[in-house]
Structures are given as C-alpha cells and as structure tokens.
Design a protein that fits this description.
The complex is a heterodimer of chains A (about 300) and B (about 800). Chain A folds into two domains: about 1-70; about 85-295, MetI-like (MetI-like fold). Chain A has 15 helices and two strands. Chain A has helices at about 1-10, 10-60, 65-70, 85-90, 95-130, 135-145, 150-160, 170-175, 180-190, 200-205, 210-220, 225-240, 240-245, 255-260, 270-295; strands spanning about 265, 270. The radius of gyration of chain A is 27 Å and the shape is flat. The two termini of chain A are about 25 Å apart. The model of chain A is unreliable at about 1-10 and about 300-305 (pLDDT under 50). In chain B, helix 30 runs antiparallel to helix 32. In chain B, a hairpin with a 2-residue loop joins strand 4 (about 135) and strand 5. The two termini of chain B are about 30 Å apart. In chain B, strands 1, 2, 3, 6, 14 and 15 form a six-stranded mixed β-sheet that branches. Chain B has a five-stranded mixed β-sheet with strand order 9-10-11-7-12. Chain B has a two-stranded antiparallel ribbon with strand order 4-5. Chain B has four domains: about 30-145 and about 330-390, D-Maltodextrin-Binding Protein, domain 2 (3-Layer(aba) Sandwich), CATH 3.40.190; about 150-325 and about 405-415, Periplasmic binding protein-like II (D-Maltodextrin-Binding Protein, domain 2), CATH 3.40.190; about 465-485 and about 495-545, no CATH class; about 555-605 and about 680-800, MetI-like fold (Orthogonal Bundle), CATH 1.10.3720.10. With about 800 residues, chain B is an alpha/beta fold. Chain B is globular. Classes of the chains: A mainly alpha (about 300), B alpha/beta (about 800). Chains A and B meet through helix 2, helix 3, helix 5, helix 6 and helix 7 of A and helix 1, helix 2, strand 2, helix 3 and helix 13 of B.
Chain lengths: ~300, ~800
C-alpha cells in the first residue's frame, strides 16, 4: 500500500497505466461480482426449494379431499383444489378456532413481553457488570438448561397446584417474567458483549446510573438482538404443546397447537384437516418473521456507534 | 431461595402421610365431574352429544370434558394429575395402562358399586374385555368397546376378477400352501390375488397386515404360541422357541421372498397412516386390522365416487388345526379413587359405558360396543334402515363372532420395556437384515436378562423425608458456598460496591424465578434419583443403586449413550456449519433475500407432522427423493453412489431403506436435524448484520480478498454468535427427543436400537414403566455429561472475541 502511494506521486505514465489497470480491475470485479451473485442466487434457489418442501406438502394435502390424499402421491398438486378443509377447521364447533387463537395470542404476547424485559435485564448484568459470584452464577444459569424437563415436570406441576395456577394461563406466562430462560439470557449476553463499552464508560463518568445506561444506551442499539429473542420466544410459545397440555384442562382454555391435535388422535387421523389447520396456524408466525426481519437485519448494533 | 425449594420438597413429604378422610358433599349441591378422554375430533362430536343428553337427564350434574388428543401423552398427564392430586373423576383407560394405576390404588374397584346397583349386570358385557380389565378378581375399567384385530378387509372387485368366492371365515392357514383346499386356504387366496408386473415386481399384493408385528403376532397366537409365560405376571420371555422361529421364518418368506405381503419398507413408503391407505387405493386385495379403520375407509371412498369399490370384512382364518386367535384392542372408563363424588362418577361411567353411550358411538361407526346386546342391535349391525354410506361393511356381525378368540397379551406394567427391547431386534427381521433365529435368540436373551433384573425383589426402607429435607437444605447451602466462598476475601471499592448492588438488582428477576420455580423441582429430582418411586405410592430409599443399575445392568444405557454421542458430535457441528453458510448467503445484497430468509426458516415453524412426512417422502426406499437421485442411472453409473450406499447398508441388492435400516437411521435423523438450522441461521445472521460495514470497506481499500475478509473480519467478529450456537446446540443435541420420537412413532429406539437416543430411554423409564426414581438418576447422569461438556467449551473459549469483555 505504501509503495503504491509513492508510485502515484512519482510517475504520471505509471499513474495512467495504474488507472487503466484499476478500471480493468473494477470491470473484472463487477463481472465476478455479478457472476458471484448468480452463483449465490442459484444456491439460494436450490436450498430454498429443499426447505420449502414441508410447506408444499402441507399445502397440497390441505387442498385435497381425503379420498385424493389416500390415492394420489403426496407430491402431486391436487387435481381439484378444495378450500373446504380450511372452512371446516375455522368453523369446527368442537375446536373453536378463534377462541383458541385468542388464548394462544394472549399467552404468546404476555410471555414474550416477559422474556424480552427480564432476559435483557439479566443479560445486561452478566454481560457488562462485575459482581460477586458472577462466573459461578452464570454456570448455574446455563445448568438450568441441562436437566431434562421430564424429571422436573411433576414437581413443577405440584408447585403450580399449590399456587392454584393449574388450569390458568399463569404457568405459561409468569415464569417468563422471572428470567425468561437461560437460552434467551445467554443469547442477549453474547450480543451485549459485542457492544463497545466506550459510551457507557463515558456515561458512568458523567454520573449516569446503570439503569440509565441500560435504557438509554444499550437498549436503543439492541434492536436486532431483541427482535431475535422476541421471535424465538413468540414462536416457542405459539408451537408449545406440552406446556398447555399439562397445565390447561378446560376446553375453553385450549390453545391452537392442542386444537390441531384433535385431528391427529389415535385411529382418528384427519390429514386434510390437520394440514389445513397447520397452514393456518403457521401463517401468523410467517408474517411475524417477515415483519420482524426488518429489525434484526437492520444491523445497527455497532455501526451506529463508532 | 431456600424457602421456596424446601417448601416444595416438604409438600411431597406431607403428601406421603395418610390424608384425613373428607366428608361427602351434601346430596343437593350441584356436582361437577371432570371427565378425561384421548379421543380425536370424530369421537368427540359423539361424546359431546352423549354428555349433553346426560346433563339434561341429570339436572345438578355438569360434566367438564377434558380432551388430551395424544394417546401417549394422555397417560402421562393422568399420572401427573394423580400425583398432584388433581386427577379427573372419570377417565378413559385401556388394558395396557390400567394395571399400573390400579396396583397403586389410584382407581376405584367397581365390584361393590356394581353389586349395589340394581339392574346392572356385568354379564351383559363381552367376557374377554371384562377379564382384560380385571386384576386379582377386581374390575377397574368399565369397558366401552372391544376391537379385535382379527378382521380381514377384502376388495370384492379383486376376488371377482380372480374368480375366487368371498371368504366366509371358514378358511384356515398353514405353513405351506394347500392348493387342494382352494379358497378355503388363506395362502392359496393370498397367492392368487397377488399380481406381478413385467419387471417381476408386484403390482398388487394379496394380503397386508396393519403392521408387520400385527401380522406375525396373529400367526403366533393362532399357531398357539405366546410371547411370555403369564399375562398379568410374566417371568419368562418365550421368543426363542423353535416354533416361534418357524413363525417368523414363515412371515419373512411371505413378505421378502414370495412378495405376497408387501415388505415393511414398501408399507412405510406410503404415508403415515400406512396400511389402510394401501387397501383403499386398491393396492392390496386383503388387509388385516380392527374395525376402527371403517370411518377412514368410508371417507376415502364414498359410494358412487369413481374410486369406490365394493368391500367387506371376514374373520381371520384359523390355523390348520382349527385354532383361532388374534390380538385385540379395547378401552373403557375408570373412576379415579381421588374423586369426591364416587356415586355420581359411577352413574356417569355407567351411562358412557352403557347402552346409551355405546349406541351413539356405534351409530357413528366408531367403536364396537362392549355390551353384546348393543353390538347385535341395528346401531352396529347395518339393517334395512341404515343409510347407504353406513352400509359398509355389510358383514359386521363378524366383529361379534370374533370376540371369543381375542388375546390381550401381557398386562404387567413392566412388560412394555421388555417388549421394547424385543421390538428393537424384531424390526430388523421384517427388513431382511438379520435371520429370524439369530435376532430372536438375541432378543430373548436381552429381554430375559432385563426381566430378571426388574423382577429382583428388593426390600428397601421407606425414604426418610426429614432427611430428604435436610439434604435439600444442605444442597442449597453447598451451592451458595461454592458460589460465594472463593470470593470472600475480595474487598470492593465504593464504585465496585455500587456496581455489585446494581448487578443484583438487574439479576433479581432471574434469582427470584430460580428460587421459586426452578431450583425446587431440580433438587426434588435429585432426591428422587436415590429413590425407588413412581410419584404415587410410597417412596423407598434405593441409595445409589439407580445409578449403578443404569451404568452396570441396563443394556440400553451404554447403547443410548453411544447413539446420543454420535448424533451430538456429528449433528451439532454440521448444523452450525450449514447455518453459517446459509447466514453468509442470506447476508448478501441479492434480489429477494428477505423472501429467501423466510423460506429457509419455514421448517422451523412448520408443523412437526409435515416435517415427518417430508422426511418419509425423501427417505422412503421406493420412489423416495433421495434414492431417486442416488440410483438414477446417471448418478449411479458415474459416481456409483447408490451402489456404495447399498453396500454400506448391508443390502447390496436393494435400494437403501433409510429409516428402516440400522446402518442408515442415524444418517437419516442427522439429515432431518438440518431442517432445524433456521434458528441458528438467524442468530448468525443477526450477528453478521451487527458487524460494522466500515471494517469491510477499509479492508477492501487495502486490497484484502473476499477470503481474507471472511477469515479476518467476519469470523472473528461472529465468534460470540458462533459460540452461542455451539453451546446451546450441544446442550440441545444431547437432549434430542422429538425428531426421533416421531420417526420411531413412540416405540423405542428403532431397528436394533440404532436410534435409541438417551431421552427416549429416559422417557420410557419415566412414563412407560413409571420408574421416576430411575429416570431421575438417568437425567442427572445426562446433566453431568452436558455440564462437563459445556464447561470444557467455556474453558476453551479463548477464541471467542468480545468487543467489550468484562474481565
């Protein structure tokens, strides 16, 4: 780099040669860039076809009559597209869709809010503060992910029973407000550790408290991280089966995922309805993802800072 | 912190002491009965109607229907609820699950209630189904239906075409074809209904059992054999007798050599619901199952539609000597002993599992009534007034004639574990991977060893809960000691003290959550790991024997450890690598990237059932996407991929049966796990987006190549995200469960236990054999392994680069 600068200063002919070479190089770069883009695009198309197969199968089966499902290949597009299955699922009085939708939305909204608030608070401490027992407490935090939930299920259930929380939404919402889960805390901690400390050092010298730093400095630049955690938490709760199944009893308190299973019971499988229902249940998540993308790909974490 | 967790342990101690008798509620009070079933949508419609009718006939009683639409999880929830004393009043139950609850006093014996009910006669019910729900002379489940699997559904069109008279049940089977008996010989019929194409492959099969195990078990029962010596209390496994081997050889001959029966891989090839579809699509002339297939068959081919063909049912043939037997299903309703309204619950049970309830279920074609009178009425047997659609099958009387020959098999609660060990070996037989005699000898030996060790009588002292609480307190104290003792000497400056105080404020939500919700159950499960306890009866102290049993006696422990380790060590790095590549691709400024991102995330939000289906469609041996590519002339001629895989799988002459072959199942579940890379991809993508653009600009100006930029900017700045996906990926992989469970359909570890991941073993111990103490020990062993593995990753995490590391 140093030598090139010298060349530029010393000899004008070399400069023009250099300029030509530069132009040629950019053209080559442009060509190779567009070739590169083409390769990338091809890879993306092939990959996405593979990853869209589940949705494709869900759609074909949701649009077929049970008779056609039995006889045709699952890959085949329906000969006669029927929207009847969607109608049946949405209007089935035995699994009232809109009631279940409301229940699921309530659980997901409140628990996701809880996860976002509490896990970012806890992650802030682990990522940016020094305190007694920090490293050991972090191992303790991680270890809560390592014990299979099967063996803590009954003790946890008994605990909620003593709190009179069985058959309410509380077991599915309240714990989210108390930590939000080791996975989310760890994820946010990793993000927070990537944010340069210059600003909070300055703020501390100005006498700002840690709450101010957290809310005014860290939160505004953590959009991508929070969007990621929010999407994960929302999807996890939306798709959760065991939690609602164990804690909710009343028919009017069921969630969408439980409602779907009534089309999948032993010796009573109704694939056309199950798949139609699955497609409907998936749509809000897909929408959320497409909308949420705007936030986590903005990439403002550090570029906005330095 | 202490109080919450100790309180929980103490509450279990209290629950162990005898409870005070509760006074019966006054008769006038309105009663609400909680009623649990595992039924699906179709049956629920009927059940709701019966309940409505019951409520209108019985003012003051309301029924709260609690539906748990998953058979396995249903029984899990019943156990959880009973352990927590929140069990329903009346619950659906069947012969393979009632014994575990009944022996622990969880179910009300119905004998006294029956005696004191005028007009009630248990003699109205089919005797075999009553016997199957009786334990030591006491009936615990009032049967609602019986479902013999001894029905042959047959396609009349095919019989007509082959000029074979319809079967009337008076036929027999023998180990060799008996042409002289013609249509009275099952094998002759099977033979003459099988059609082969020009390439020598069958285009239509003669016969298909709903599952290979059902097919071979029926031959076994019918030949007069048994899998064990005693149904309620088996002590000997009898899978290795010469006669048993003969039956398996016979079945393999029919399906793998003669091809009159589709092989296992040809059945799993078709959709999940399997055999019924093959019959409804006309690909097999005969099909063995129970009556529960009828609603689906009716739906699959409506009379008058072009797919419709005439069909009926006949009874399964007897063995040549006239002996007839076949497996069966059936269910009923039981009353939990925790009910406060025993009489009301009994009255309701009688209604649901009585003429009214059964008639409604029968009319819907859902269940064969357990009361013979109802089973013979026109609610079940089609009469002149039956609507056209419900006419099929015409010979429904066969279901009644079949009842005397049903076999329920072992009911002991520990038998499923033994059967699981045997099934792991059996699966390879159906696929032709191992000779029956070799597989059965091995299976029998392993099953018997495990049975012996389970039957070993142990005299154990009751668990001392006072000591348990003390140990719990000590554990919490020890935890605090380990965390804070090493730092006792640190002296903080004022600023550090403020920072410390602030940190604990930020941590407080998690610390409270840990103390209230998390730590108690964790400590409780640690205490459970030294107990012999089912969460219902009295807890016994077993010391460290649960741990030594796992590592020393249980043959599945090390198998599952090996399988899990292999999965984890391959799937996690592979998943991260793929996620990283995808994230790089999706971080490019290429047209349509937002859409691509969503598309790659689809499998992470799609329904599990759809994922399973796709997996089957890709990996099925015949016409599966994978094999179509591997064995396509072009690929196989040039790269020999198909040949290489076939040799690797040990079946050089066949295309690979990915999900059925013990050599390829692991590859299959690892491939399936790649569908889930979406979330790692997002974490990495968010990390990539966080890398300041000017780093790249500066590097480009300096003439750094794309590779250098990747190595020196992207990767280092992405290490926090990579580290996260690595640590959580390993933790998750060690606990992999769902994707295996759905492939094996909840029945053990697949062919030769090649998919027996650790969590399957743990799940079966906890909820199939109700050995919660043992399961807890298994869980803590896994915990130790994961913890060690994670600590190593943290210790070796010098490669992770943090902008703002707090040392």
């Amino acid at each position: 780099m140093h030598s090139r600068n010298q060349v530029v200063v010393e000899d004008p002919t070399v400069v023009s040669q250099e300029h030509d070479r530069y132009k040629k190089a950019t053209r080559v770069a442009e060509l190779s860039a567009s070739a590169g883009r083409f390769v990338i695009w091809t890879l993306l198309v092939i990959g996405s076809i593979a990853f869209m197969m589940p949705l494709y199968l869900m759609m074909t089966m949701a649009l077929k009559t049970p008779g056609e499902i039995a006889r045709s290949s699952a890959w085949a597009w329906p000969q006669q597209v029927t929207w009847e299955n969607f109608h049946t699922v949405l209007t089935n009085p035995n699994a009232p869709f809109f009631l279940f939708f409301k229940n699921t939305a309530i659980i997901c909204t409140f628990s996701t809010a809880g996860v976002l608030v509490s896990s970012s608070l806890v992650a802030y401490a682990f990522a940016r503060l020094r305190f007694r027992g920090r490293d050991k407490l972090f191992i303790l935090l991680m270890s809560t992910m390592m014990l299979p939930g099967i063996v803590t299920m009954i003790p946890t259930y008994v605990l909620y029973k003593y709190l009179h929380w069985v058959d309410t939404f509380y077991p599915l919402i309240v714990p989210a407000w108390f930590g939000g889960g080791a996975f989310n805390i760890f994820l946010l901690r990793q993000f927070f550790m990537g944010v340069p400390r210059e600003l909070d050092e300055a703020a501390i010298l100005d006498g700002a408290s840690h709450s101010v730093i957290f809310w005014r400095i860290l939160m505004p630049v953590s959009g991508p991280a929070l969007a990621t955690v929010g999407i994960f938490a929302f999807i996890y709760n939306w798709r959760d089966f065991m939690g609602p199944l164990i804690y909710l009893n009343s028919p009017e308190k069921q969630t969408l995922e439980l409602g779907l299973r009534t089309y999948q019971a032993l010796q009573d499988e109704q694939w056309h309805l199950l798949m139609a229902g699955s497609v409907i249940v998936m749509i809000p998540l897909l929408t959320l993802f497409i909308l949420g993308q705007r936030y986590f790909v903005k990439g403002i974490v550090m570029s906005g800072l330095k | 912190m202490l109080i919450g967790s100790i309180g929980l342990v103490a509450s279990f101690a209290l629950a162990q002491s005898p409870s005070l008798p509760t006074s019966a509620p006054a008769a006038q009070e309105p009663i609400q009965l909680r009623f649990s079933v595992w039924d699906g949508d179709e049956s629920l419609k009927v059940i709701r109607k019966i309940i409505q009718r019951y409520e209108s006939e019985n003012p003051g009683v309301t029924i709260k229907l609690e539906n748990i639409p998953d058979y396995n999880v249903y029984h899990q929830k019943m156990l959880v609820e009973y352990a927590a004393n929140t069990a329903p009043d009346v619950a659906m139950m069947d012969q393979s699950h009632f014994q575990a609850l009944a022996t622990r006093g969880a179910l009300v014996p119905l004998n006294d209630l029956m005696k004191s009910t005028p007009g009630f006669d248990i003699g109205d019910y089919y005797k075999p189904i009553v016997d199957a729900h009786t334990l030591d002379g006491k009936l615990y489940v009032l049967p609602r239906d019986i479902a013999p699997q001894g029905l042959i559904y047959y396609n009349k069109k095919e019989f007509d075409a082959a000029h074979i008279p319809y079967p009337d049940g008076s036929w027999t089977w023998d180990f060799t074809e008996r042409p002289e008996l013609k249509e009275k010989d099952f094998l002759w019929v099977m033979h003459h209904l099988t059609k082969f194409g020009k390439d020598g492959k069958p285009t239509q099969y003669g016969f298909l059992p709903s599952l290979p195990a059902v097919g071979v078990d029926t031959f076994m029962w019918s030949y007069g054999l048994r899998p064990e010596n005693n149904d309620p209390h088996p002590t000997k496994v009898t899978y290795d007798t010469p006669d048993m081997i003969k039956v398996y050889n016979f079945y393999c001959d029919l399906s793998l050599k003669k091809k009159w029966i589709p092989s296992n891989s040809e059945v799993t090839n078709v959709m999940q619901q399997g055999a019924e579809t093959i019959f409804a699509s006309g690909e097999t002339a005969m099909f063995q199952s129970g009556i529960w297939e009828v609603p689906q068959i009716r739906k699959d081919m409506k009379p008058g539609s072009k797919e419709f063909f005439d069909w009926d049912i006949a009874m399964y043939p007897a063995y040549a000597n006239g002996h007839r037997a076949f497996p069966t299903g059936g269910s009923g309703y039981a009353i939990f002993s925790s009910t406060k309204n025993r009489d009301a619950a009994w009255k309701f049970t009688r209604y649901m599992a009585g003429p009214v309830g059964m008639e409604a279920m029968a009319r819907a074609g859902i269940a064969q009534p357990a009361i013979r009178k109802v089973a013979l009425s026109d609610a079940w047997i089609p009469g002149p007034n039956t609507p056209l659609e419900q006419q099929w099958p015409h010979s429904r009387i066969v279901t009644d004639q079949a009842v005397p020959f049903v076999q329920f098999g072992a009911t002991a609660e520990y038998w499923p574990e033994i059967q699981g060990i045997i099934d792991a070996r059996r699966d390879s037989i159906y696929n032709g991977l191992i000779a029956p005699d070799k597989a059965l000898k091995l299976a029998n030996e392993e099953g018997q060893n495990r049975l012996d060790s389970l039957l070993k009588e142990e005299t154990l002292p009751p668990f001392n809960w006072t000591n348990g609480i003390a140990v719990g307190v000590a554990l919490v104290a020890a935890l605090l000691f380990v965390i804070y003792w090493p730092e006792r000497g640190l002296r903080y400056t004022n600023r550090e003290r403020r920072e410390n105080a602030a940190a604990y404020k930020f941590l407080s939500p998690w610390l409270i959550g840990l103390a209230v919700f998390t730590l108690g159950p964790m400590i409780m499960s640690l205490l459970m790991s030294v107990m012999n306890w089912d969460m219902i009866g009295q807890a016994k102290f077993r010391g460290l024997h649960n741990y030594t049993e796992a590592m020393g006696e249980d043959p599945r422990f090390w198998v599952s450890m090996r399988v899990t380790a292999l999965y984890t060590l391959v799937a996690t790095p592979l998943g991260i690598f793929v996620a990283f590549l995808l994230a790089l691709l999706l971080n490019q400024k290429v047209k349509g990237v937002p859409l691509f991102r969503a598309m790659f995330y689809v499998p992470s939000i799609a329904s599990t059932v759809a994922l399973t289906l796709v997996t089957r469609k890709i990996l099925s041996p015949e016409n599966g996407l994978m094999n179509s590519i591997l064995y396509s002339p072009f690929i196989n001629k040039t790269l020999h991929l198909g040949t290489i895989m076939s040799n690797y799988a040990g079946t050089p002459h066949d295309q690979v049966n990915w999900l059925g072959n013990e050599h390829t199942t692991m590859i299959s579940i690892i491939l399936l796990s790649l569908f889930g890379v979406g979330s790692s991809m997002i974490v990495l993508l968010a990390g990539l987006q966080g890398i300041p653009q000017f780093y790249y600009e500066a590097a480009t100006v300096d003439g750094a190549s794309a590779w250098h930029r990747l190595r020196n900017i992207t990767v280092p700045l992405l290490t926090p995200s990579i580290f996260f996906t690595m640590v959580t990926g390993f933790i998750g992989s060690f606990q992999v469960f769902t994707q295996v469970y759905i492939i094996t359909k909840g029945s053990g570890g697949g062919p030769n236990n090649s998919m027996l991941v650790y969590m399957i073993l743990l799940y079966d111990s906890a909820f199939q054999t109700l050995r919660m103490g043992y399961a807890a020990a298994l869980a803590w062993v896994l915990f130790a392994v994961i913890l060690g593995f994670t600590l190593i990753q943290f210790k070796a995490s010098k490669w992770v680069y943090y902008e703002a590391d707090v040392k």
